[in-house]
Amino acid sequence: MEYEEFLGFVKSRRTIRAIKPDPLPAETVQKLLEVARWAPTGFNMQPAELIVVEDAELRQKIKIIVDDYKNSDFFALEATRESWQGSPWTPETHGRWDTPLAPVFIVVAGDTRRRVGLPMVARYCRQKGDSIFESSLANVFMYLWLGAHCLGLAAQPVSGVKYPKVQGLVKALLGLPDFLYVYDILLVGYSAMEEGPSAKLVRSLEEMVHYDRAEEGEFLSEEELRRQIVKLRAGNVARHAEAERGR
Ligand SMILES: Cc1cc2nc3c(=O)[nH]c(=O)nc-3n(C[C@H](O)[C@H](O)[C@H](O)COP(=O)(O)O)c2cc1C
Questions:
Q1: For the packed helices 164-174 and 56-69, what is the interaxial angle rounded to 10 degrees?
Q2: What is the reported pLDDT for 243?
Q3: Predicted confidence (pLDDT) at residue 246 exceeds the cutoff of 60
Q4: What's residue 134's pLDDT?
């Protein structure tokens, strides 16, 4: 693959939150699962377990669990924003959370028992073990997402599943054993957006790359950083609004 082709592919992968309920062919789902199998993992421990949820009742129940958390705890905590962050997201400004009923929910979980395969140092330094485990699952998740994009599908993460209440309820619903940690859920299906998502704000290489050393003067000041954060978040707001329009 040529570099330009690869760059174009990476640049065109986006989060698509408007997903049609139409089912996906089984071969398509198999294809993106196959991509995930090849993701690099720390010390080749391959901790990921993928639970493909297509059953309509289970998807509906997961949606209810996630929406309930988003429409309660998420918005409740948003109301505690510091003033520099701008107005908090509220159901009035952003609409009540309404997870799309994509035809396939792929639950990416990690088998915590596989952590014993990490080097001994990870056993005695919990943070190191957690970091390798989590990063490995992140790689699998991103490979899935790229696989979906390559197949022309829309995908949206549902990271709210990391919150204890959501994690517990989803695990109980799907009958997952205690040793599984649910890392995230990727919703996959056909895009319901008529046009592609709007351009996204991306930090410049000049700002983010440092050569040999990275001394304090090369970084944004606290003030500049906060201004940038507000802009980047606003980009997200626009995309949420787009998704709403696409439904
Ligand atoms: C680790 C991670 C967690 C995310 N969690 C969610 C999520 O729970 N819900 C959601 O709608 N988007 C989620 N996103 C999507 C991001 O908001 C999105 O990737 C970001 O705004 C950049 O937009 P893009 O994916 O279109 O490039 C997540 C993305 C990442 C990388």
A1: 170
A2: 46
A3: no
A4: 98
Residues above pLDDT 90, as percent of the chain: 89
Q: Using the mean position of ligand 1's atoms as its centre, give its distance from the Cα of residue 240 in Å.
A: 11
Select the CATH number that applies to the domain covering 3-194 from these four: 3.30.70.260, 3.40.109.10, 3.40.50.150, 3.40.50.2000: 3.40.109.10
Query: Across residues 22-37, what is the average pLDDT?
Result: 98
Ligand 1 mean position to 119 CA, how many Å? 31
Name, in order, each residue with C-beta under 8 angstroms of 108's C-beta and a sequence gap of 6 or more. 36, 48, 50, 137, 140, 141, 144, 182, 183, 184, 185, 186
What φ, ψ does residue 78 adopt, rounded to 5°? -55, -35
Instruction: List, chain by chain if needed, residues with CB within 6 Å of any ligand 1 atom.
Output: 14-15, 17, 156-160, 197, 200, 236
Predicted confidence (pLDDT) per residue in 91-110, tens digit: 998 899 999 999 999 999 99
Give start and end residues of each alpha helix (H) in the chain: 3-12, 26-37, 56-69, 75-78, 91-94, 120-124, 126-150, 164-174, 205-208, 222-246
Domain ranges of the chain: 3-194
How confident is residue 129, by pLDDT bands cut at 50, 70 and 90? Answer: very high
Distance from Cα 238 to the centre of ligand 1, integer Å = 13
